[in-house]
Design goal:
Strand order of the largest sheet: 2-1-3-4-5
Distance between the termini: 38 Å
Number of helices: 10
Strand content: 5-15%
Largest sheet: 5 strands, parallel
CATH architecture of the largest domain: 3-Layer(aba) Sandwich
CATH superfamily of the largest domain: Response regulator
Helix content: 40-55%
Order of helices and strands: EHEHEHEHEHHHHHH
Number of domains: 2
CATH topology of the largest domain: Rossmann fold
Shape: globular
Structural class: alpha/beta
Length: 210
């Protein structure tokens, strides 16, 4: 049984998604949240497998929220369910750690299939979005900095400002070990080797905290 939490600031949307999920005997709704802070509170007390996350809820930006969910609940799968079909938003959600992206305008069967697929450990995007992502990959995804999630960009900025792991960790409310993990990920994505390389990259691209 897939345990689903619905995060959306519109009560009617949450009610509709709950009713839709009730038609699938493999999915049970175990919680709801109207904003980012409430969602994190629910997840701390409610075991869940998938979060259906609206992209425009009150609270931190969706990339920051997805990154925080992935840090605190690494086994949890995030499915972004949005009113916005823009491919750029989908890319940013996937970079932040979402397992899938589907719009609310899709058929009910697509929404349920998206929940089931990410619950099984897969990823879900529509065929049109998959084609767009493939085209971006062929073109190198534009600027290399586009490869970084919002949290990775912030870690890069903090380290480029000369912050130690401990100082960066305090600013992000994470452990120094987590900062080190992010640093390694950033180096790999940008094909760099040292912190000095990161500083030069940040200066060159005029990166600012997001």
């Amino acid at each position: 049984m897939t345990r689903l939490v619905i995060a959306d600031d519109h009560p009617l949307i949450r009610a509709g998604f709950r009713q839709l999920a009730s038609r699938d005997c493999t999915i049970t709704v175990v919680g709801e949240a109207p904003d980012g802070a409430s969602l994190l509170a629910v997840l701390k007390t409610t075991p869940a497998d998938v979060v259906a996350l609206d992209i425009k809820m009150p609270g931190p930006g969706f990339q920051e929220l997805i990154s925080k969910i992935r840090e605190e609940f690494p086994a949890l799968r995030v499915l972004v369910v949005s009113m916005y079909p823009e491919a750029e938003l989908a890319l940013r959600a996937l970079q932040a750690g979402a397992a899938g992206y589907v719009t609310k305008t899709h058929a009910e069967s697509d929404l349920l299939e998206a929940v089931r697929k990410v619950a099984r450990g897969g990823r879900y995007v529509t065929p049109s979005l998959a084609e767009w992502l493939a085209a971006r990959l062929e073109g190198g995804l534009g600027a290399e900095g586009d490869l970084l999630s919002a949290r990775e960009r912030r870690v890069l900025t903090l380290l480029a400002e000369g912050k130690s792991y401990k100082e960066a960790a305090a600013a992000l409310s994470v452990s120094p070990k987590t900062v080190s993990t992010y640093r390694a990920r950033i180096l790999r994505k940008l094909r760099l080797k040292t912190t000095a390389d990161l500083i030069r990259y940040a200066v060159k691209h005029e990166l600012k905290e997001v």
